[in-house]
Every structure is written in C-alpha cells, then in structure tokens.
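Lab notebook page, bench 4
Experiment: in silico fold of construct C2
Operator: M.H.
Input chain length: 134 residues
Purpose: comparison with the prior construct
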Amino acid sequence: MAPSKVYLFDEIAKHNKTEDCWLIISGKVYDVTSFMDDHPGGGEVLLSSTGKDATNDFEDVGHSDDARGMMGKYVIGEVDVTTVPTKRLYVAPGLGGTSSKDDKSEFLIKILQLLVPLLILGLALAARTYTKKE
C-alpha cells in the first residue's frame, strides 16, 4: 500500500464550497464533494464542518456502522496534525472578523436596552404623580 498524501491544514481549509468540500475526521482527509447531494443531513451539514477538525461533529451525531464503512472511498490522505489549530474561532463565510465599529454599536445597544425601560418607568411615575387628583 502506498503511503497516503499528507496535507497541511491551510490547504484543506481552502476546500470549503459545495463544489469542492474536504473534511478532517480523526486525522484523515476526506473529499466529500461527490457525497454532498447524498448526505442524509444535507450538504450544509458537511459545509459547516469545513475549515476545522470535524471529528467531534462526526462523533456527536452518532453515525452508523454503514456510514463509517462508506468513509473509506472518500479518503484522500492525512492531515499534518502540527498544522491544525488547537482552537479555531468560527467566522461565518463571507462575514470576516468583527470590527471595533461593531463592538461600539453592540455597546450602544446594551446601554439603550438599559436606559429605555428606565426612561419609560420614570415617565409613568411622573405622569401618575402630576395627574393625581387630591
């Protein structure tokens, strides 16, 4: 048996589209592009596991022995485990990272969520006090 090809994580992470989808499961690299339409959970499930080690995602679902048996035909190599990040921040496709502007607007929203109810309560108490008949 010929030695399997070893891929770097960054190279694998580039294959994150419906027409080109690779996954890392238990140290092996799988090209699941041809399986996207046939996956019982849909292709989106596979796409959501790209760009990371998908071992936990795969195991958490509890795949059957038949599903595990099918995996062999999709193996294209192994991942160089030294290149896989230990923890990866999820960034939705096309969104990029957060900016300081996003952080400022989130802070403003939190402040408003606190102040608006207090303002309404204050107005209600003021209206009750000044409209009270003696």
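Observations: The chain has a mean pLDDT of 84. The radius of gyration is 25 Å.
Next step: discuss at group meeting.
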